[in-house]
Design a protein that fits this description.
five-stranded mixed beta sheet, 18% strand
């Protein structure tokens, strides 16, 4: 087996939109073709003309390095091998520098990562602009695409491709290899993405047509309700102006605010305003966009591939790609499940979307809302197969109590799992206010839910008010503050843990090289090679780049900074909203959230390995859930549950519970 790794980069063009379709569908599209390719093997470089040399390297078991390796693998196997006698390139033979950057919480783009690590060769930005022109048609003549393809342009693109290979080589030197566990997880990620999940494409296309009619009807209704001041639910600025004109103060209709606006509409007894806001909220779910995304990404065999992004979050958790299954609404009640089934019946009965809408609008208050709820059911098992899925129950709450050593809460989880205890929302309220959990009312349980979801990661009263608005609990400033104080008094170990973990990180940055343990030695911080490492119970680490001690500040929601009089750790990372590489700050609540989320992910990954070994091929992973596609007569829900619920050796004492199911559709 060759000991020297090769590097490979393709530049391609297609009428298929890579961002919308994903690498797998893009590579199989008939219009996709390779313009140029460059590769390096030791001191030897080459192009398409001598690609057989790289083929010999692969046939001998050699490794191929690429940035976003799945793309190069897809193009090699589905494009290049169509016309040349070359060996298959497998994920086992690849090394992905993008995955390696992700594990360090570096930018995942080649250009961004190379700049951050100070690579000796950077991406050719002018060549990138040319590539973006050449990869898409400049127009169509008689239905045929025309391309930017002069000899000069192709030569310049070839130069750009060669520079990309050089930049990847320079990045390869700077970024450490994946650990064995990370490598195993990345290979699992590639397997899941390559398998894909089947979609009921005919039903999706019918749902898309219905959604388009429903959107048109929603625009008509919006125009009617506002007397023509707002023409479409998408005109947020106009809706805000219209609401303000009716005396309902709001400057936003964003996801976190819109529920507050509904509360205001009720307070002002303005039913028309409520209808307008509800219409906006239902339309904002983007049912049309979601169904269109499924159509865009479905391969020829009706499977969507590439739905997850390895180490998409800094904590290690998978992020969604393409159809974004993480954002599919859940179906939580029997009534919602019945509505989804009725929608299926309508779509299967009526081919004309206008007729289907007329029928649906008689059964449902909001057709767009039901279409949104039906998204999950569009994912189906292949003929002769079925899904078996399992979801960890409140895993982050359990991990948080385990880290804190909040013994009464661990006991409550264990008793609930045995069927002899109350649910944790009742217990949270009861513990906060000295009430027997059995006497907690439905409304008080909802308040307990607000407490659990708002305060676990050091959230304040504003976090409680936002969460309350989402589930129909209106909280004054005084009540929200009261709930915060009561929860913290009931969770002294959590509160102590926030400050312990914060102080440990500060001490580690002050004394580089020193291992600083905390939380009973379950977490360790250490600074090495310009990175603050947070070692998790599993042995995996979270990385915070370029840490330094700065004066602590509390950042208000409006961006105002108030000095706290305490030191903080500043680090560099990819900001989750803007995706920009920027300075960020650690504090106890954020660190707590990071270690809890990361540990929950580690539990999911270990369960995934066990499922794969037992013959349950995973085709989908969503938050804390795994979904496998198996033969109709293979396995059982009980076995699936047992495999997922095994407590890792490093998590002794952590109560784990799994809710599992099976079906031919993804309906959970």
């Amino acid at each position: 087996m060759p000991t020297v790794a090769a590097h490979l980069d393709f530049e391609t063009r297609s009428t298929c939109d890579l961002k919308k379709a994903g690498a797998h569908k893009y590579a199989e599209d008939p219009s996709t073709e390779i313009i140029v390719a460059r590769w390096r093997l030791g001191n030897k470089t080459g192009s398409l003309a001598d690609i057989h040399i790289l083929g010999d390297h692969i046939a001998a078991g050699g490794t191929v390095v690429a940035h976003n390796a799945a793309f190069e693998r897809s193009i090699w196997n589905k494009q290049l091998r169509r016309f040349r006698d070359l060996p298959e390139l497998t994920a086992d033979q690849q090394d992905c520098t993008m995955a390696r950057c992700a594990t360090l919480a570096l930018p995942q783009s080649l250009d961004g990562a190379a700049k951050v690590v100070g690579a000796s060769v950077l991406k050719d930005t002018d060549g990138h602009k040319l590539m973006m022109r050449m990869c898409r048609p400049k127009g169509f003549v008689d239905g045929r695409p025309e391309w930017h393809e002069t000899d000069e342009q192709i030569a310049r693109l070839d130069q750009y491709c060669g520079t990309d290979v050089d930049a990847e080589c320079a990045l390869d030197v700077k970024v450490p290899r994946l650990t064995p566990l990370q490598r195993k997880t990345w290979l699992l990620d590639q397997q899941i993405n390559d398998r894909g999940v089947m979609v009921d494409l005919p039903l999706v296309q019918k749902a898309l047509a219905l959604a388009e009619v429903a959107n048109f009807k929603a625009a008509e209704e919006m125009f009617r309700l506002t007397d023509g001041e707002v023409e479409r639910p998408s005109q947020v600025t106009r809706i805000i102006k219209w609401l303000n004109g009716r005396g309902i103060p709001t400057a936003s209709l964003s996801k976190g605010i819109i529920d507050d606006v509904l509360v205001l509409a009720d307070m002002f007894d303005d039913e028309t305003a409520r209808q307008v806001v509800e219409l906006r909220r239902a339309s904002a779910k983007s049912s049309v966009a979601k169904y269109q995304a499924i159509v865009n990404a479905a391969c020829r065999d009706h499977r969507v591939r590439g739905t997850i992004n390895y180490h998409g979050a800094a904590t290690g958790r998978w992020a969604g790609r393409l159809i974004q299954t993480q954002n599919f609404p859940g179906v939580y009640t029997e009534e919602e499940a019945a509505d989804v089934q009725r929608l299926h019946d309508i779509l299967n009965t009526y081919d004309d979307p206008k007729v289907a809408y007329d029928v649906a609008s008689m059964l449902f208050d909001n057709v767009l809302e039901v279409l949104s709820k039906a998204l999950r059911s569009m994912l189906i098992a292949a003929p002769g197969k079925r899904f078996v899925g399992g979801d960890f129950s409140n895993v982050e709450g359990r991990v948080s109590a385990w880290f804190a050593g909040e013994t009464w809460k661990l006991k409550a989880f264990a008793e609930f799992d045995l069927g002899i205890g109350h649910d944790l929302y009742k217990i949270a309220y009861g513990k906060s206010f000295g009430v027997d959990p059995g006497a907690v009312t439905k409304l008080e349980r909802q308040v307990g839910k607000v407490q659990e979801l708002s305060f676990q990661f050091q959230g304040g009263k504003r976090a409680a008010q936002k969460m309350g608005a989402k589930i129909g609990v209106t909280l004054s400033d005084e009540r929200a503050e009261e709930l915060k104080v009561a929860w913290r008094e009931a969770h002294p170990a959590h509160v102590a843990g926030w400050y312990e973990i914060q102080d440990a990180a500060i001490e580690a940055v002050r004394r580089p090289g020193l291992i600083v343990p905390c939380l009973g030695n379950r977490i360790q911080y250490r600074v090495a090679n310009g990175i603050l490492w947070c070692r998790l119970p599993s042995g995996r680490c979270i990385a915070y780049v370029h840490p330094k001690i700065v004066e602590g500040v509390f950042i208000e929601e409006d961006g105002t900074e108030t000095p706290t009089g305490r030191p903080q750790v500043q680090f560099w990372g990819v900001e989750s909203t803007t995706k920009k590489w920027t300075k960020q700050r650690l504090y106890g609540g954020l660190q707590w959230e990071n270690v809890v989320q990361a540990t929950a992910y580690d539990i999911l990954v270990e369960a995934s390995f066990r499922l794969e070994d037992a013959g349950y091929p995973i085709v989908l992973t969503v938050h804390d859930e795994n979904v496998a596609e198996v033969d109709e007569d293979f396995g059982s829900v009980e076995e699936f549950t047992e495999l997922m619920a095994i407590v890792p050796d490093w998590a002794d004492g952590l109560p784990i519970a799994v809710s599992a199911w099976d079906d031919t559709r993804y309906v959970k």
